[in-house]
Design goal:
single chain, Lyase, Ornithine Decarboxylase, Chain A, domain 1, 2 domains, about 25% strand, globular, TIM Barrel, 9-stranded mixed β-sheet, 8-stranded parallel beta barrel
């Protein structure tokens, strides 16, 4: 499933769109599963979020803009925290949920996550700096990454993070040495590669053997990492094992094999070293719906399925259930946000024979959402500033970058009268879009606007041309 360099140009569907996309009975209707919970169409026909009209958002903050429903974000975080805690209560006293900072992180979001009681997973010094600026409790922070610098390790230890997930033998030595210099005991977990590949794009499947993350179970590498850490008992505290099998996962079957294998190592540690590791992180990467094709599981169902797997495997091994933690990934941030654009050029492109395609160009593009070009990711969209009585026409939404692969929505039905000045909204852009954004073609990055209770505010301001030039040493 490698993405072609030209991205969505070479996607399934030809001139007629993918087989799953059919002409909607009402081109103005919203698919609730794709939108934050407060998004509605007003009587005037415009989208509103948390009671705020998108036309007012465009007027105040400009376009493009990422628009996040704060209550939707918080409620998704709260559901994961409460459901996993309740379901695992009888097994190990509850479960911990770690928000993925890489999905989307800013100071405000870090504070929301703190207030909702989740942990925070960071994988760089920059993400850690945001957490520190927000005053996020160190004990609920986990530091990830396959190539942590000494500066990042020392910053994490100085702040008192609750876990450092070690990824190589070299890193074990780096963390041990840093802990000795600082006079602290570093809490570490071993990233275990369990040989399970989730049904996902190959670039986001992280548990098969041939990839950069973790210690492989094959050949006893992970077991050797445990021994290595225990030999540094004066500076390292082994908290447990960590497994992550991928991203955009829609069932718990992959976790069954992964849990069995990582719990096998857990049992080996008990037998060989006579110690019981207190924690086990099963990862997550739970899937979300970008189009009507996907049907994600609820947090409660995910928790129930994973609890049954863990209980069964621990009973078979005869070991107590360690404290479980999970990482929902994009499932919290993703559905909480949409990106608001203004339509510019609309043109009909003649293809072979009598075929044609409507191209709708907006004022953003691959600099604010690289995922269609990078992963062949599918998105939906709708005209956001009005309703239309025009018939539906199959359109392709593109950006303004100097790339033929600058495609945001490969195929979607829009009103045939779509025109310059319309506002267009693409849902489910809260995860990775701002995080992966760039200044390609010297395009300043959009702001992030949070809506709640009938009001909106910027939580990340729009970049300016002055920001771009400020880094240019002349």
């Amino acid at each position: 499933m490698r993405a072609h360099e030209a991205g969505a140009l070479h996607a399934e569907g030809g001139h007629h769109g993918p087989s799953w996309l059919s002409t909607p009975p009402d081109v103005n209707a919203l698919v609730p599963a794709l939108w934050a919970r407060s998004v509605r169409r007003s009587d005037a026909g415009a989208l509103t979020v948390a009671g705020v009209d998108v036309r007012d958002l465009a007027g105040e903050f400009g376009t493009p803009a990422y628009v996040i429903d704060e209550d939707d974000f918080r409620s998704r975080a709260r559901e994961f925290k409460q459901d996993f805690d309740e379901v695992f209560q009888h097994l190990c006293g509850g479960a911990d949920v770690y928000y993925a900072g890489k999905a989307f992180l800013c100071t405000a979001v870090a504070r929301w996550i703190d207030e909702e009681g989740l942990g925070l997973d960071v994988c760089s010094g920059g993400e850690l700096a945001v957490a520190i600026r927000a005053g996020f409790p160190g004990r609920r922070i986990g530091l990830h990454g396959n190539n942590k610098s000494i500066a990042e390790i020392e910053a994490a230890l100085h702040y008192g993070v609750g876990r450092i997930v070690v990824d190589s033998f070299q890193e074990v030595e780096l963390v041990a040495a840093a802990a000795q210099r600082l006079g602290v005991l570093a809490p570490v977990m071993v990233r275990v590669t369990v040989g399970v590949e989730a049904h996902t794009h190959e670039f986001i499947a992280t548990a098969h053997e041939d990839q950069k993350f973790g210690f492989s179970l094959a050949g006893g590498q992970a077991a050797e990492a445990v021994r290595h850490i225990l030999n540094h008992s004066e500076s390292l505290s082994l908290r447990g094992l960590h497994s992550h099998i991928g991203s955009q996962i829609f069932d718990t079957s992959g976790f069954e094999v992964a849990a069995r294998r990582v719990l096998g190592l857990h049992l080996d540690v008990v037998r060989e070293h006579g110690i019981r590791l207190p924690e086990l992180d099963l990862g997550g990467g739970f899937g979300i719906a970008y189009t009507t094709v996907q049907d994600p599981m609820s947090p409660r169902d995910l928790a129930t399925g994973m609890a049954q797997i863990v209980e069964r495997e621990c009973q078979a091994d005869g070991v107590p259930v360690p404290r479980i933690s999970v990482e929902p990934g994009r499932a919290i941030a993703g559905p909480s946000t949409f990106t608001l654009y203004e339509v510019g050029t609309v043109k009909e492109v003649l293809l072979d024979g009598d075929a044609s395609r409507t191209y709708v160009a907006v004022d953003g593009g691959m600099s604010d959402n690289i995922r269609p070009a990078l992963y062949d990711a599918d998105y939906s969209c709708t005209i956001a500033s009005r309703v239309s009585q025009a018939p539906a026409t199959l359109a392709r939404v593109v950006g303004k970058h100097c790339e033929s692969g600058d495609i945001l929505v490969k195929d979607e039905f829009l009103p045939a009268d779509v025109h310059a000045g319309d506002l267009l909204a693409i849902p489910v852009t809260g995860a990775y879009c701002r995080s992966l954004s760039s200044q390609y073609n010297h395009m300043p990055r959009p702001p992030v606007v949070a809506a709640r209770g009938g009001a909106a505010r910027q939580i990340v301001r729009r970049e300016t041309i002055e920001d771009l030039l400020a880094l240019d040493v002349d």
